[in-house]
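Teaching assistant here, posting this on the class forum so everyone can see the example we discussed in section. The complex has four components, and the goal was to see what a joint structure prediction looks like when all of them are supplied at once.
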Amino acid sequence: MSLVRNNKEKANCTERILAFKDSIELLKGKWKLYILQMLSTSETMRFKDLQENVVGITPKVLSKELQELEQNLLITRTVNNTRPVTVSYALTKHAKETEPIINALIDFGVKHRMKIKEK
Amino acid sequence: MSLVRNNKEKANCTERILAFKDSIELLKGKWKLYILQMLSTSETMRFKDLQENVVGITPKVLSKELQELEQNLLITRTVNNTRPVTVSYALTKHAKETEPIINALIDFGVKHRMKIKEK
DNA sequence: GCTATCACTTACCTTTTGGAAAGTAACTAT
DNA sequence: ATAGTTACTTTCCAAAAGGTAAGTGATAGC
């Protein structure tokens, strides 16, 4: 009986570690979280908007990051019927669940900046 | 008056973006969050404990990551008076503030794994 | 015809990350 | 003397990440 419970707890623990690693994998790199945070402030943004607002990113890298985010169901890509063509990117409902991560990162960053100012 | 407020809000916004980027910089890479999470479960761990429990990490990489975490005030390194020498690593009080980040990553990972199982 | 805009793509290159394998230094136990 | 333990370090290398600069294709306005 306690053995079953141990197994369940072990399985649950393993699952949590896998989930943790998946999250890190999904959001890794210099830009992905920054892009998600940017999209969370604006509902939809065009490629050019992102290029201008995600300071420092180049079109090549932006394009690659957007493709990966789309593949992982975190953003949607919509071609608009405009001339010249524009393309709108938006967070999926699912991606909105990354908000706690982003907020936690900001909170920690603020604390860290205060910490290193102490010296 | 509203201008001052705008400036304050802008400054605050900039500060939050800097904080966000600092956090990402501090915790980037394949291993750092994993190491922090591991240390959060055990109070202190020796180099060898970490090598065994952070599955897949090599001594070279572990050593480098620990040095960076120490430099950033996230862990402490203590040489123990044992034979052969052992070295204990522990989270700083400050690093314990990363817990919300780790929990948020686990939560999102769990949701993501459910999402992709749907298909 | 020429220029401009948008959303990319391509080629090339440098830097960073991280892994494999072996070695080292200090010390203990046999 | 030799083998074992701990905590690393060193060398060498491959892959990934990311930047620069230029180009492409569709279309519109002048």
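For the discussion questions: The mean pLDDT of chain A is 93. Residues 31-118 of chain A form a domain with the Arc Repressor Mutant, subunit A fold (CATH 1.10.10.10). Think about how each of these relates to the inputs above.
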